[in-house]
Structures are given as C-alpha cells and as structure tokens.
Amino acid sequence: MGIACIADADLEKTGFSYTLSLINGKYKMVILYCLMEFEVVRFNEMKKYINTISYKTLSVMLKGLEADHLIHREEYPQIPPKVEYSLTERGKSLIPILDSMCEWGDNVRCCNKKI
Predict the structure, then answer these.
(1) How far, in Å, CA of 64 to CA of 81, rounded?
(2) 50: domain range?
(3) Residue 15, H or E segment
(4) Is the pTM of this model over 0.85?
C-alpha cells in the first residue's frame, strides 16, 4: 500500500465526510443515542431527556434526521396528537459506532486515562 498524498486527496469525496454530513450538529448524535437506548421515544420525552435543547431545535433536528432516513416518525390519529420516533434500519446501522463511542467514553472517564 502506497503512502497517501494530501495534494491528491479531497475530503468531500470520502465516506467520513458523508457520514459527518448526516450526523453533524449539536444534538443529532444525542438524539440518535437516545433512540438507540430507548428504541421508541415521544417528542416530549426526548425534550425532557435532552433538557438543554429548545423545542424548535429538537423539531428541526428530528426533521433533518427523518429527511436523511435515519429516524422514523410515526404519527397516530388521536386527540391529543401522539408522535413517536424510532431508528430506521439505516439509523440502526450507526449503533456499532455509537456503542464504540460509549465504550471509549466509559473507559476514558472511569479510568481517567489520557489518550
């Protein structure tokens, strides 16, 4: 395998860049983590779980993740309205990455290691 040359590289054409474009944002990873942990979550439950997020920001983040086919929004025709969110199969494919991040964080936090 040859040595990569940065002069010939283009970050925009990498899988890393594409993945980052889907999960980039202050709360997107937190929302995905929440859905990974709890599977099906209602809007207000998620707002309480992520207490630093505003209702508007949560709504925008959820719409973006839904547009990228990472989460599924299920609306039930009832009064009061009931909406639930869950990971799609595409979203579930991020679980190994989220698990690895959790494991790394636990190891570094618990052992106070510097990596």
Answers:
(1) 21
(2) 27-111
(3) helix 15-23
(4) no
